[in-house]
Structure formats: C-alpha cells, structure tokens
Amino acid sequence: MRRAARVDENQKAIVQALRDAGAYVWIVGLPVDLLVGYKGHTFLMEVKIDSKKRFTGLQADFFQNWKGGTLCRVDSPQAALEMIRTAE
Fold first, then answer.
1. Rounded to whole angstroms, how far apart are CA atoms 38 and 53?
2. Which of 23, 25, 37, 67 has the fewest CB atoms below 10 angstroms from its CB?
3. 84 burial via Cβ count (<10 Å: 0-12, 13-18, 19+)
4. What global pTM score does this model have?
5. SS3 content of the chain, % helix, strand, coil (to 5)
6. Mind listing the pLDDT tens digit for each residue in 21-76?
C-alpha cells in the first residue's frame, strides 16, 4: 500500500497564481505535481519548496526519460508564471 505524497507548502500559492493568470491546473501528484494547460500548451510541473530539494527516484527517472511537452521544476509562483509565459 502506498502512502499519500507530502504536498509542498508553496503548492497552493503556485496553483492560485497559475489559475489567476488564466491557466487550467490539475493537481495530479504523480509522476509530477501539476498538469497545467495555458494558451494551447501543456506543462508538467514538479513543485519543490526550494532549488535544493532532491527528486524522488520516480521523479528523477521521469525527468530523465520524459519525451513529451514541457516538463519543469518550480519553487515559487513567479517561477511557474515565467514558465507558462513561454507559451505567449
């Protein structure tokens, strides 16, 4: 049995900033925290509390092998907004 993953304390603020900017945000949890749609683009975002937090084994494998759309790590609302603005 798998236990629930811990949610980083900054995730709520990041989700709210993305939604306020007009993005559709789905909290998925695995293999990354957020599935974000913005202006016809899809972003997969892993939320970490800071740049020093390490990926889990699953996350590291996913980041290494992902062959799809934009995959990123964000640690603040500003970082998340900068990422979706690449779609503009």
1. 26
2. 67
3. buried
4. 0.89
5. 35, 25, 40
6. 999 999 999 999 999 999 999 999 999 998 888 999 999 999 999 999 999 999 99
